[in-house]
Amino acid sequence: MSVLTSGVTKAGEGIDSISWNILGQIYVPKTLCDSSFSWHATFPPGTFVPPHIHPTQDEFIYMLSGRMDFVLDGTDGVAEPGDTLRLPRGIPHGLFNKTDTDFKCVFWVSPSARLYDLFWALHNLGPNADPAEVVAVSAKHEVDFLPPPDAE
């Protein structure tokens, strides 16, 4: 069981000085307890998270800078600084940086479930991980990637 500890996670730092490289995106964990998990994310140009589902978590994203293209339950959209995306559990969503600059945002999920452990596992696969291995590891951590549209 993970209990929230009091204190401050300083700007530019992660809890326990952690910073993950998840397939070219930088994730810096900010808070962690059983009921929620948050992280700062930087998505360089051309990076993305393919459509997937969190069957056991609600997810939220607050945009800090740049522009995020997304698909939410089959509908395309755009999020810009100050926007908050609400991604309920069980609803498919994908996130994309189609611009020529980074976008930065803060994510959080509730409950934490196994996402913190998933980020360690994906970080350890390296920046050029085999997509099939990413999908398999993610499924073991309660994140289910959807097949590409042409595979349906």
Explain how this protein is built.
The N and C termini lie far apart (39 Å). Strand 6 (68-72) and strand 7 (75-79) form a beta hairpin. The model has no long low-confidence stretch (mean pLDDT 93). The chain is mainly β. It has helices at 115-125, 131-140, and strands at residues 20-22, 25-32, 37-43, 48-53, 58-65, 68-72, 75-79, 84-87, 93-96, 103-110, 144-145. 14% of the residues lie in helices and 39% in strands.
Q: What's the layout of helices and strands?
A:
Elements: E1 20-22, E2 25-32, E3 37-43, E4 48-53, E5 58-65, E6 68-72, E7 75-79, E8 84-87, E9 93-96, E10 103-110, H1 115-125, H2 131-140, E11 144-145
Antiparallel strand pairs: 1-2, 2-3, 3-10, 4-9, 4-11, 5-8, 5-10, 6-7, 6-9
Helix pairs in contact: 1-2
Looking at CATH, the homologous superfamily is Jelly Rolls
Q: What helical percentage do the residues reach? A: 10-25%
Mean pLDDT: 93
Global structural class: mainly beta
Note the main sheet: 6 strands, antiparallel
Segments where pLDDT lies below 50 for 5+ residues?
none
- Could you tell me the number of beta strands? 11
How many distinct folded domains? 1
Question: In what range is the share of β-strand residues?
Answer: 35-45%
CATH topology: Jelly Rolls
Report the span from N to C terminus.
Answer: 39 Å
